[in-house]
Amino acid sequence: MKLKIKFYKLIFCLFLLSCNQYPDHKSICYDSSLQTNEYLGNLFDLTLLTDLEQALDCASTSEKYLLIAFCSYLPSGIGKTIIRGYRNQLYYFENSQSRNIIRDRFIPLVLYIDDQSKWNETVNAQLLDQIELYYELYNPQLSINFCTPNRTMGNVYSKLQIALTGSNGLPSFAILDQNGKRMYYHDNHSKMEFHKLPFNQKD
Question: Which of 3, 26, 129, 195 is deepest in the core (most CB within 10 A)?
């Protein structure tokens, strides 16, 4: 009888070990190799990605929505001035209920439309095609010009914002599904309660 019990214990332990061979969604999406915004992450108590392609891959892998928050760098300042500016731009991160929903159902991504980093044609070439497709699908009435000299990451992120929301005003955000299809967008014309979006309600 004792031998039988030990045998079942061994089987149970092997089962647990086999389960631990596969990382969960959280470890896939938030490992140390991903680029994150620590300053804003600490401010809002969220893990905020900063690389678009990494975020798209993560959303697809984890089967979560991708929340793209568009914002801008603020003029030089200190302390409360900077914090107040970011809280105005990213006000929907302030609500604790919204943050819980974001942690559970979204991969949050922050993109700066005035990012002066140089655009890498080799690494990011496919993104331009995707942005052009978004223009055709969601805002065909708008013209698009990618022939910008000395193109920066901010130039491209700004075009992505306009393609998805139809506006370059702040604050604004867009929500994509796991396949990159736009589910929802919100521009700067009015504030709204993020946690009251239809697909954020509990099933």
Answer: 195
Beta bridge partners of 184: 175
Q: Is residue 82 part of a domain?
A: yes
Specify the range with the lowest mean pLDDT, choosing from 24-28, 171-175, 184-188: 24-28
CATH classification at residue 109: 3.40.30
Q: Please check whether residue 108 is in contact with residue 35, taking contact to mean a CB–CB distance below 8 angstroms.
A: no
Write the single-letter amino acid at 58.
Answer: C
CA distance 4 to 116: 67
For residue 10, what pLDDT is reported? 38
Q: What is the pTM of this model?
A: 0.77
Give the list of residues 6+ apart from residue 67 with CB closer than 8 angstroms, or none. Answer: 102, 106, 107, 108, 109, 173, 174, 175
Separation of alpha carbons 149 and 167, rounded Å: 22
